[in-house]
Amino acid sequence: MMKQTTIRLILILAAAASLAACGSSEKAREAPGEPVRGVQLETVRLQALPEFYEAAGTVRSVTTSIISAQISGTVLEMRVKAGDRVKRGQLLAVLDDRSPRAQLGAAQAGVEEASQGLAEVEHGLQAAASDRQFAEATYRRYQGLLEKNSVSRQEFEGAEARYKSALANERALQAKKKQIEARGQQARSQQESAQTQFSYSRITSPIDGVVTLKSVDAGTVVMPGTPLVTVEDPTRYRLEASLPEQHLPKVSVGMAASVKTEHATFDGRVAEIVPSADVGSRTFLIKVELPRDCDCRSGEYGTASFAIGQEKRLTVPRHAVLEHGELEGLFVVNAQGTAEYRLVKTGKDLGERVEIVSGLAENERVATSQLEKLRDGVRVEEP
Known about the structure:
By secondary structure, the chain is an alpha+beta fold. It has 3 helices and 20 strands. Strand 12 (about 255-260) and strand 13 form a beta hairpin.
């Protein structure tokens, strides 16, 4: 009897406990959680944003001088190496100058000979002019005396012959002077040419800059056109980028472009558009001027961003996107005020905002504050 009473009591207590548990769980489900107050929301809209095309290119100096040999000969000296800074007119290399020196000497001798010949003929021309003037005066006087029958015809004819002879001699010397002047001019031209040829044996820098390449060493035999030294201006650089044909009408000279290298990002400007396309790639070469004294190196890789139009994109504040490892998400608040954590895929970084490529639709609302207090299913109240 006692045993049955004990069993019945246990069953009653168990049933009571079960009812109490059910009641408390139902009460917990019915009782709403505490809402998160003061949450700022933003309704997502499509925004018209600039569309950019990023073109790959190479950084090059605006002024690059490839200095080549103008004469054949042996390199006697190389006075610079790659990396040296040089000034305009500075001697870079010396070639064997024996042949141009000999030509210069012969040309100078020709100029001296022509000069001496010209001096001699001018002296003779002065004497001939004096003789002609005296003979002409005698001839004119005898002509007057002949009209008065004061001299004989024979005397007059003698004075006339002497005048004509002096005149012919003067004219002959004048012609000779012109010939010698012509030879002198020719000799001076030969001298200038020889001087130029001789100067080619002294290789000098045409610009202030840096030696970027030394192509030969002392002892090398070179021919006309053989590259010797390359010098470039390190203060002015351009990015030479390739732009597809379909984007060419949207780019113009003077247009701003953002240039990025592995060292920094620069504000550039389109300086030149080469009008002919590359046959293989069907792209056009665009030269973007970079700021003076930028931290650039000739030959390094870079990209240029050109604004080619506008496109509509969904964007949200950058701080509204939460990152968990490689996953990105944000809290979307529905019409009932309930927060939902949603994974999204982001696109271009727009500074304080970021593009949302997928996972979000226009006119949805996203939380932009109190993010650390939010979780799935919590109610949200705006300020």
